[in-house]
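Dear colleagues,

As part of the handover before I leave the project, I'm documenting each prediction I ran so the next person doesn't have to rerun anything. This entry is a single chain, and its sequence is reproduced below.
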Amino acid sequence: MRALSTLVGVALSVGVTSSPAIAIASPATPHETAQIRLAQQMLSITVPSAANLGAAFTGTTLSGRLGAVTVEDHRIVNPNTWTATVSATSFRTGTGTPAQTIPNSQVSYWSGPATKSTGGGTLIPGQLTAAQAQSLTVSRTAFRKTAGSGNNTVTWTPTLLVTIPSTAVLGLYTGTITHSVA
């Protein structure tokens, strides 16, 4: 006799944080009057507001794309390097009892390659392939820029892998994936 598995749906909300800064310009030569020019420097990250990863049976792994994640860097510092990180909460349904929780240790992330970039620089994905997927039990590097200057953008489309515990109950599980850049 074959046991029936429970079908579980997984959805998530996506959070984002970024680091704006203010620049102060100094005189070009010692004979000029000092002027202060305030300019907003922009280092930002944008992510989809939500994603539905679909449904899977208990004891299996669900794979789903989050959608495009983009870092824009319009700072005037040179070189302008940055690191984008990603973290996750556990996924829950109902009141979040153990049978209603998929812990973040069961959630893995891989960034994949850049799908679009402008402005140059050395761009390095956190996890280029599915074989390099990392558990989101702690914050992980999603993407980084290690060299280059001037305005630049990079976009990637990360994938989540969610292993559904065999003890999970039927429900729509929600969690939050948060990207930040600094």
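Confidence is low (pLDDT under 50) at residues 1-5, 12-39. Residues 7-181 form one domain.

All the best with the project,
I.
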